[in-house]
């Protein structure tokens, strides 16, 4: 993928679970797709006249263009044209088709220096903005700082199960992926997904770090499965982004002048609950504390819940 992008000097935009398939620090990487992605990706997509979709099916209407010609490559015929019209659909294995595309690009090289410069400028400005967002620390910590802490500590080959909530968007906006495998509930957006997913991942890959990242509202849906992790001796670490509310819903209500009834939460002490189940409980109120607690928890290789106190900040472009 990297070689193909460099060959045609294209901007690269990834879907949520594909973040680690392309170097996030590459000058042509423009971030994720949709509200959870980047302003740079939306701008560059809107300026493009041809978009090559490799194995992706998610096409959020408000963040993707309608004017560009789209060529889609996928091994499943049923995935062709989901959410958008196609200029051309190619059914096949990317492992065979991408090398062929490289051959075609090499046979007809184009001078795209101006576009390459535009991509680098947009992506560079975006990454500078993220550094500013994620650099500020406080207590409770900004969600951007919390995600940056995760990005700096989690191993490159870890498996990360991300629950559903406003932290899902913050994660895709801020997290700098390396080779991690990212699991989400992509179709049903299920609350409580992260913990059981992390348990399953740890059973399948006992040698790898398996981390569950969940909001307080999603955590309580399946929280007693932590007892299962303790019984099985699984060294998963669950980070609870605790902001005392269903922040996505509350912020939408507030922004629209609605009553926030039902959006606020009265939470248990997640660290003490972990201890009551026979695991380890930790707390963090700042990004620096979260980095320390997460590093120690991962090194201990025991089931652990980290209760991370996070501010209920509004995700950009939030609307009802």
CATH top level of the largest domain? Alpha Beta
| Parts with pLDDT < 50 across at least 5 consecutive residues | none
Strand arrangement in the largest pleated sheet = 7-6-8-9-11-10
What order do the SSEs take from the amino end to the carboxyl end, as H and E?
A: HEEHEEEHHHEHEHEHHEHHEHE
CATH superfamily of the largest domain: Thiamin diphosphate (ThDP)-binding fold, Pyr/PP domains
What fold name goes in the CATH topology slot of the largest domain?
Rossmann fold
Mean pLDDT reading: 95
Largest sheet: 6 strands, parallel
Q: Can you tell me the overall shape?
A: globular
- According to DSSP, the number of beta strands is 11
Please identify, by name, the CATH architecture of the largest domain: 3-Layer(aba) Sandwich
Strand content: 15-25%
Structure classification: alpha/beta
Number of DSSP helices? 12
> Taking Cα atoms only, what radius of gyration do you get, to the nearest Å?
21 Å
Estimate the helix proportion, in percent: 40-55%
Report on this model:
The protein has about 325 residues and is α/β, with parallel strands linked by helices. Helices cover about 40% and strands about 15% of the residues. It has 12 helices and 11 strands. The protein has helices at about 1-10, 40-45, 95-105, 115-135, 145-155, 165-175, 195-205, 215-220, 225-230, 245-255, 270-275, 285-300, and strands spanning about 10-15, 30, 50-55, 70-75, 90, 160, 180-185, 210-215, 235-240, 280-285, 305-310. The strands form 3 sheets. It has a 6-stranded parallel beta sheet with strand order 7-6-8-9-11-10, with helices on both faces. Strands 3-4-5 form a 3-stranded parallel beta sheet, with no helix packed on it. Helix 1 (about 1-10) packs parallel to helix 3, helix 5 (about 145-155) packs across helix 6 and helix 5 packs parallel to helix 12 (about 285-300). The longest helix has 23 residues, at about 115-135. Pfam families: TPP_enzyme_C (PF02775), TPP_enzyme_M (PF00205).
């Amino acid at each position: 993928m990297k070689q193909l992008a460099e060959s045609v000097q294209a901007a690269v935009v990834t879907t949520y679970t594909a973040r680690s398939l392309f170097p996030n620090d590459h000058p042509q990487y423009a971030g994720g797709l949709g509200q959870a992605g980047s302003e740079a990706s939306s701008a560059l997509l809107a300026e493009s006249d041809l978009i090559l979709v490799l194995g992706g099916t998610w096409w959020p209407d408000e963040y993707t263009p309608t004017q560009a010609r789209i060529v889609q490559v996928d091994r499943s015929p049923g995935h062709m044209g989901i959410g958008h019209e196609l200029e051309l659909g190619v059914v096949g294995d990317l492992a065979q088709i991408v090398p062929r595309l490289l051959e075609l690009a090499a046979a007809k090289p184009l001078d795209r220096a101006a576009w390459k410069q535009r991509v680098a400028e947009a992506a560079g400005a975006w990454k500078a903005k993220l550094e500013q967002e994620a650099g500020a620390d406080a207590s409770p910590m900004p969600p951007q700082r919390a995600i940056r802490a995760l990005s700096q500590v989690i191993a490159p080959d870890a498996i990360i199960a991300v629950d559903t909530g406003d932290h899902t968007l913050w994660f895709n906006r801020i997290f700098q992926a390396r080779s991690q495998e990212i699991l989400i509930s992509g179709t049903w957006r299920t609350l409580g997904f992260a913990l059981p997913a992390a348990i399953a991942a740890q059973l399948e890959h006992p040698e790898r770090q398996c981390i569950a990242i969940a909001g307080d509202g999603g955590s309580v849906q399946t929280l007693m499965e932590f007892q299962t992790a303790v019984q099985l001796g699984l060294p998963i670490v669950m980070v609870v982004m605790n902001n005392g509310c269903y922040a996505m819903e509350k912020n939408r209500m507030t922004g629209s002048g609605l009553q926030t009834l039902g959006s606020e939460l009265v939470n248990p002490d997640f660290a003490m609950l972990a201890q009551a189940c026979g695991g380890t409980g930790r707390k963090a109120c700042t990004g620096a504390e979260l980095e320390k607690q997460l590093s120690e928890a991962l090194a201990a290789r025991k089931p652990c819940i980290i209760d991370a106190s996070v501010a209920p900040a509004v995700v950009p472009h939030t609307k009802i």
